[in-house]
Amino acid sequence: MRMNFLNDALGRVPEYRAIENAVRQRKTPVAVTGLASIHKANILHTLLSAMSKKALFIAGDEAEATRMLEDLNAMGVTSAFYPLRDFSLRDTEGSSHEYERQRIEALTLLQTGQCTCIVTTIDAALQYVLPPKKLKERTVKLSAGQEISVDEIVRALVRCGYVRADQIDGTGQFARRGGIVDFYSPGGKAPVRVEFWGDEIDSMGFFDPESQRRTQPLDSCRILPAAETLPPLYPGGSAALGEKLQKLAGRAAAKKDSDTAQKLAEALRADGEKLCADCVLPAADRYMGFVYDTFATALDYLAPEAAVLIDQPARCAERAKEYTTQLREDIALL
Fold it and tell me: Are strands 79-82 and 117-121 parallel, antiparallel or unpaired?
């Protein structure tokens, strides 16, 4: 009731009506100045309520993004944060995929219509992510009573970038014990245990990873990808990509007068061997161009009629320039 009152009050303000009419008639972009953070959230909430639109809000920095997210959620707008992440371009063992999983969760909510607004920063919005079609294809829905084998689920988890563990303690992991499969999907409030009767899902539910006791039964759930760059999605799988890298290594090694080429050959050969052996590749992001036939960003997940709001445009432009400059330097060093 309170938010309806605020929406009605704002709807009577001539300046707001001008904004809404411009958006309805697609006479955009529209600039609005002189607003405090809470007023930005109020205008966005009223606009989305009046027009039943989805939106992407691009903040000037993480602090402003956090404030906007909190304000929108307090107003009843189902919102999610889409964070910036560091690309895995170097061979560092034990790198975290937590930000990737947050991004995948946010994009899934947007793709399935479960989220009204994604809040992000300009550098995060510019980063490449797995294409919408691939996210949809790699999302596996499970239901109680479904006929599917344990091996099929394990293969699906491996293709989605999950790492096998003896016991789950975080997202992106799975474990198998006979006819029981545990996995912790991005966006899940807890890990899921799936119990089989032959090749049929007998039951499933959330469980506590510490006590290993089930906490809530489930009728259905989703397996979401656990990483953004998934070598198994390369045509022919990880082994095929590994073979391609080894061929490229051979070409690089043929340039015997170049130290850079020799170093490149060593890196390609090492990564190719890991992929051929179905090992996890920490620096998978440097092969994103091989894994996917097209590049995509968060903007590709928006419907054509969605609203895009850019907070502090000058600050966003500066941040975008800083990000692209730094990325070029990082790539040059590699």
Answer: parallel
